[in-house]
Amino acid sequence: HVQLVESGGGSVQAGGSLSLSCTSSGYETTCMAWFRQAPGAEREGVARIYVDSSNSYYGTTHYADSVKGRFTISKDNAKNTLYLQMNSLKTEDTAVYYCATSIWGQGTQVTVS
Questions:
Q1: Statement: residue 59 has pLDDT above 80
Q2: Hey, which bits of 1-113 come out as E strands?
């Protein structure tokens, strides 16, 4: 049973930091990503990373303009865990954050006040 499980969400003041984790049950994939959905808004991509070591794009990352320079996506293949380090958080970063490949995690709430 393949699944993605996020953790690390919470509440923080503007300017603060949070780190999200997403553990997969050994799911093999080429690319993993973080998305977010704010209340009343559509789900949007935040960051993605190519995680297949046999792929020529391995390790390549992409970020939404709104988070460039503040967020960092990374993957620990040994732990099957995807991370999102979020620094200099803004109130507009408030959303439910989802880990995704071809399946979705359940989401974790991030609230910035």
A1: yes
A2: 4-7, 10-12, 18-24, 31-37, 44-50, 61-63, 71-76, 81-86, 95-100, 108-112
pLDDT tens sequence across 63-98: 999 999 999 999 998 888 999 999 999 999 999 999
Q: Does 60 have pLDDT greater than 90? A: yes
Q: Parallel, antiparallel, or unpaired: how do β-strands 10-12 and 108-112 relate?
A: parallel
Contacts of 29 (CB under 8 A, 6+ apart): 51, 52, 101, 102
What is the distance between the alpha carbons of residues 33 and 49, in angstroms, rounded to a whole number?
A: 6
Q: Which residue has the tokens 């996020």?
A: 6
| Largest interatomic CA distance in the chain | 42
